[in-house]
Amino acid sequence: MAKKKALEEFEAGDQVKHPKWGVGTVLFKNGSGERQKVIVVFPDEGQKKLLVAAAGLEKVS
């Protein structure tokens, strides 16, 4: 069985990229690991509440 990739931890203020909504900014984070949830504001989409394990987010440098 393939080893699961470790989930990235996000913090408020991080710039992230979502596959559908593009680049946004993390406003709030709750929890950690598989249960980490974030609220991200995207310029064209507004605020989205996302489960990190399912959202496909990547940190932007």
Structural commentary:
- The chain is mainly β and 61 residues long.
- It has one domain (15-59).
- The chain has one helix and five strands.
- It has one helix at residues 52-55, and strands at 15-18, 22-30, 37-42, 46-51, 58-59.
- The protein has a five-stranded antiparallel sheet with strand order 4-3-2-1-5.
- The longest helix is centred in the C-terminal third of the chain and has 4 residues, at 52-55.
- It starts with 14 loop residues before the first strand and ends with a strand.
- The model has no long low-confidence stretch (mean pLDDT 90).
What is the multimeric organization of the chains shown? single chain
How many distinct domains? 1
What share of the residues lie within helices? under 10%
Q: Report the mean per-residue pLDDT as an integer.
A: 90
Structural shape: globular
Structural class by SSE content:
mainly beta
- What value does the Rg take, in angstroms? 11 Å
Largest sheet: 5 strands, antiparallel
Number of helices: 1
- Strand content range: 35-45%
- Based on DSSP secondary structure assignment, what is the total number of beta strands? 5
Low-confidence stretches: none
Spatial order of the strands forming the largest sheet: 4-3-2-1-5
Distance between the termini: 32 Å
SSE run:
EEEEHE
Short account of what is shown:
This protein is mainly beta.
Q: Any descriptors?
A:
61 residues; mainly beta; five-stranded antiparallel sheet; 1 helix; globular
Describe how the helices and strands are arranged.
Layout: E1 15-18, E2 22-30, E3 37-42, E4 46-51, H1 52-55, E5 58-59
Antiparallel strand pairs: 1-2, 1-5, 2-3, 3-4
